[in-house]
Amino acid sequence: MTTFIGIDMAWKIDGNHSGVAVMVGDGDRVELTCVSKNLNTLDSIVDFVRRNATVDSVIAIDGSLVVTNETGQRPCETLIGKTFGRYHASCHSSRLGKPYAATGMRLVAELKNVGFLHDFDMSRAKSRSGKWTFEVYPHPAMVRLFGLDRIIPYKKGSVPEKRAGLQTLRGYLRMLANGSRGLVMSATLDGLLEQNLAQIRGQELKNYEDTLDSVFCAYLAWHCWRWGEERNDMFGTLEHGYIVVPKARTVRES
What we know:
Number of domains: 1
Radius of gyration: 17 Å
Order of helices and strands: EEEHEHHHEHHHHEE
Shape: globular
CATH topology: Nucleotidyltransferase, domain 5
Largest sheet: 5 strands, mixed
Strand order of the largest sheet: 3-2-1-4-5
Structural class: alpha/beta
Distance between the termini: 21 Å
CATH architecture: 2-Layer Sandwich
Strand content: 15-25%
């Protein structure tokens, strides 16, 4: 069995909430086993990963892991914008000098101290053993996996609008678990998706959003490990920054 970890990284990693989710599975199926609570520092994230990782573990991180450009945006972000802009799934620009631009690189360095390599190579991703990590971006991944015409609006707007968006996202995650894409329903996932959104607001609602993002990232870790270049695209390069996105297949496809 292999462990798959998703990290929704806060840019201000020491001070703001980051979500981390853990799945365990093999080439046929994967299931959510646990999610983090109240991780507000880099050290707490790395400690959570260390305690949940196994000999074979893959981490998918929503955060810029390689930033070398002084101005503009990373080439991979430009490529994502050209490909997914019409779905409203463009990236925020990462560049040296911006506040917290080095957060992802700091996280990579600390994860290396607990055995995780950041040397992503799509040609070696399928069923790769050991501990390794790579970068993802949920919005374009959702567009492709769920066959969306535009991104799910769960991050901005009023509290009722965010709740409605989160409800839509939860429906797609249930569809993912009930489809033929490897994710199976677990008590942990079911409990997370059944939380009463009407009773969540403020920071708790933001933390819940981060947690759902981390669950999706954990699934993307499995998806990349399971299929490699057959069903995943790499936008950009390891040298100057990249983002891994599933190829255009919908949730109902085998």
